[in-house]
């Protein structure tokens, strides 16, 4: 078994259905790409739930009145400066602050850095 793969056996605790959902090609092994994609989907779903909790009037944007943080932070997130944070702006802010999707290239770079740190 390769270090960047997970086999089905440890997933009996979580259920085979979860494993099958993540295992897109159905080969019985989770590749690092399948795992990364699954993690991104979980992050996106969590980000949407969090956005929806803040958007108390349900209009699809977060106003300054709904935002419960420093005004400077609101202004940083509100990229177009129109006084409302859209789901896209909210997601982009999370990614800029390290809480969002990582491209395959960024993932490989981080992995290489971690391997380098272990070697030292």
Task: Count structural domains.
Answer: 2
| Spatial ordering of strands, largest sheet | 1-2
Q: Structural class per helix/strand content? A: mainly alpha
Second rung of CATH, namely the architecture of the largest domain: Orthogonal Bundle
The radius of gyration computed from the alpha-carbon positions, rounded to a whole number of angstroms, is: 19 Å
SS field, number of helical segments: 5
CATH topology of the largest domain: Recoverin, domain 1
Distance between the termini: 25 Å
| Main pleated-sheet profile | 2 strands, antiparallel
Shape category: elongated
Report helical residue fraction. 40-55%
Strand content bin:
5-15%
What is this structure's SSE topology?
Layout: E1 5-7, H1 16-22, E2 29-31, H2 32-54, E3 62-63, H3 71-77, E4 84-85, H4 87-96, H5 104-119
Antiparallel strand pairs: 1-2, 3-4
Helix pairs in contact: 2-4
Can you offer a commentary on this structure?
- This protein is mostly helical.
- It folds into two domains: 1-41, no CATH class; 55-102, Orthogonal Bundle (Recoverin, domain 1).
- 52% of the residues lie in helices and 8% in strands.
- It is built from five helices and four strands.
- Helix 2 (32-54) packs across helix 4 (87-96).
- The longest helix is centred in the middle third of the chain and has 23 residues, at 32-54.
